[in-house]
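# step 3/5: fold
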Amino acid sequence: MKKVKITVLKTTLDEELAKEYGAEGLKACPMLQEGQIFYADYAKPEGFCDEAWKAIYQYVFALAHGADKELFYYGDWIRKPNVAIVSCNDGLRPVIFKLEATEEESKIDYTPVR
């Protein structure tokens, strides 16, 4: 299994939806910042948003195990191999991520709880 590089590309706010449904003063997500980089494989990176992780985990897992663009929607989604552009599931202020497979091998760096 390889590590996957996660880059925060954008933090967004859908002004129209936020105006209709959002809490007063809602802004783009404060959990993550554009340009932040994380590395992951089977475990959520330290400091990464729990909800965002739930939304992108399956793509991280696939890339960590060697999936390429052909496996992502039959090659009609992303033109670059070993890359996925995904977002968290916040409909008012989604954060957009770039996932890239790396050549760095994963290592278990913690003691599993049994």
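# step 4/5: annotate
Helices lie at 15-21, 50-64.
# step 5/5: archive (pending)
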